[in-house]
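hey so u asked for the seq, here:
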Amino acid sequence: MRELKFRGLTANGDMVYGYLVPDLPDSTVYYKEYSQRICWYEGQAHHNIPVKNGTVGQYTGLKDSYSIDEYFGDIIEEKDGVRLIIEDGLSSVWYKNMKTGGGKYFWQLDVHKVIGNIHKNPELLEKE
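ran it, structure tokens below
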């Protein structure tokens, strides 16, 4: 079973990592845009911060060729320059080719690295 951890984008554009909890309904003036929180511990201190809806990505349980954790929504690049977006497939993690719409499973990948994600690095999204 994969480790349950998440990440999400804060209002100031930072990506935070931890576990995911729903916020209390109408707990803030911007609840409609930020209805979930990422929580984490640093030493004995517990932290949490609201994250923008639609930016939450779960850890896939997989790592790239350089031992970097992969999350849904990450953009990876293979050694031949092909870029793929990590998506949740029906029964597995799916790496969708941004140009062709096709894809691969993890075991079909060669050397690859996480180069960004769709929320913080939209400029990495190639269009045909």
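The radius of gyration is 16 Å. The mean pLDDT is 89.
lmk if thats what u needed
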